[in-house]
Amino acid sequence: MGVGIGGNYGTWTPLASPTTTAAPSYTSPYWNNNYPNDMGNSPLGQTLAEQDPQTFYYRYGRSIGVPDDQSAFGRWFAQQYGNFKQGYDAYTFSDPFNASIGNYAAGLGNYNDWLARFNQLAPQLRGLDAASRGGGPARWVAR
User: Fold this and answer.
1) What is the C-alpha separation between 3 and 30, in angstroms, rounded?
2) Running DSSP on this structure, what letter comes out for residue 117?
3) Cα–Cα distance between 4 and 64 in angstroms, integer?
4) Between residues 24 and 63, the one the model is more confident about
5) Among 31, 90, 129, 131, which is 20 to 30 Å from 57 by CA?
6) CA nearest 109: which of 46, 56, 61?
7) Domain spans of the chain, in order of start
8) CA-to-CA distance for 27 and 67, rounded, in angstroms?
9) Spatial distance between the Cα atoms of 28 and 63, rounded to a whole number of angstroms
């Protein structure tokens, strides 16, 4: 339900939760996604998610197991927010009265899908230094 442009407040469907397969067990020091009274899937939570997509993106990443540390993968995932927001905006144009940010995010895949996208990048873009992996310039070693 797209709640910012006059949605139907009488009915609601829970946000689709992304499935996590083989994601590492990661606990964020900033947000615990196992909070016992989490209202993220309530109508209020959906409204807040629609109004603050950047916070929703943070929660989405932590819920599928992406770390919010300074690892190359964690930094790359955080940098994808602009693409996420632009994609969600385009998705909303398709069906503005029924589109929800949760359904959009669920269609983007789980931890393994995001990790596969990251691993398809060049080693330098993944934060790997080619020289430290044996890919640097050839050198003669004196005997």
Assistant:
1) 27
2) H
3) 26
4) 63
5) 129
6) 61
7) 53-119
8) 8
9) 10
End-to-end CA distance of the chain: 72
What is the 8-class DSSP label of residue 127? Answer: T
Query: Is the torsion defined by CA of 90, 91, 93, 96 positive or negative?
Result: negative
pLDDT in tens, 79-120: 999 999 999 999 999 989 999 999 999 999 999 999 999 999
The CA dihedral of 85, 87, 57, 113, to the nearest 10 degrees, is -150
Query: Contact 64/114 with Cβ under 8 angstroms?
Result: yes
CA atoms of 41 and 7, how far apart (whole Å): 16
Q: How far apart are CA 18 and CA 14, in angstroms?
A: 12
Q: What global pTM score does this model have? A: 0.70
DSSP output for 38-100: --TTSHHHHHHHHH-HHHHHHHHHHHHT---SSSHHHHHHHHTHHHHHHHHHHHHHH-TTT--
